[in-house]
Amino acid sequence: IFTDAAIQIVIMQIILVTFHTMTCTQRPWRTRIMDFFDRALISPALIMTLVVAPFFVDDTNTKFIVYMSFVALLCCLICAVVLSVVQLITFLKRANRKPYEFFLCHHKVGAGSFARLLKMRLKSSRRIRGDVWLDSDNLTDMNLLLNYVQQAETCVALCSDQLLLRPWCVGELTTAFKSKTKTVLIQFPNFVHLDQKTIGNFESAVPDIGKLVAHGIDLPAVQSMLLWF
Smallest Cα–Cα separation from 183: which of 175, 194, 191? Predict the structure, then answer.
């Protein structure tokens, strides 16, 4: 279509720089190490193409081709610097992040299988970089259960019918509420919010709720969480 060598070189450079920028930003590979190797292999080849290609073109407009090549190379270097700064900022943010990205709060009988499937899907997602806490995998000491809630960026409540009637599940949600941990609700079809009467007589509805006092959670704190929930 384009017979002029200068135009061909410029178009090729635009395509290469655009493709390489998309590769660096979108990270198409499943693992970070493969993304790194992709950039490490393509970057030198791209720079060599931008610098060397014009000198192998037999065209009267050689000056223009060389000029455009160095402009493209400069743009590539600027993009590399910008991407490096973005990567550094992202790394510093992650360094200050909590150990877990998600804490899965669930009643094992009502949502155990769903919780396992959800963790598998979250872990397989390229967008999820942090770990996912699930009691079957990560709980080693029951006395430390509520501490794990505060070590997560987000508490995911799998709202099955018995979730708000299980003392430890309520303890996890109350801890998230008190620590202002971001909480996301996934409501099952059989889930029903507790009414004011049940919340007011919650100690009668859930007699074992008193065991949470030893962990710094009293009845008023639980009731406040239920009213918010």
Answer: 175
Check if the beta carbon of residue 13 is closer than 8 Å to that of residue 72: yes
Percent of the chain with pLDDT over 90: 33
Q: What is the DSSP code string of 17-62?
A: HHHHHHHHHH--SSSHHHHHHHHHHHHHHHHHHHHHGGGG---TTH
Q: What is the DSSP string of 79-104?
A: HHHHHHHHHHHHHHHHHTS-SEEEEE
Report pTM.
0.62
What span, in angstroms and rounded, lies between the C-alpha atoms of 209 and 222?
9
- For tokens 């941990």, what's the residue? 181
Provide CB contacts within 8 A for 75, sequence distance 6+.
Answer: 17
DSSP one-letter code for 166: S
| Distant-in-sequence, close-in-space partners of 68: CB < 8 Å, separation ≥ 6 | 6, 9, 10, 13, 54
Q: What tokens appear for 22 in the block?
A: 């998309």
Model confidence pLDDT, tens digit, residues 136-163: 898 888 888 889 999 999 999 999 999 9
Which region holds residue 216: left if phi is over 0, alpha if psi is between -120 and 50, else beta? left
Positive/negative CA dihedral, 62, 64, 66, 69: negative
| 3-class secondary-structure state, position 185 | strand
User: Is residue 149 helix, strand or coil?
Assistant: helix
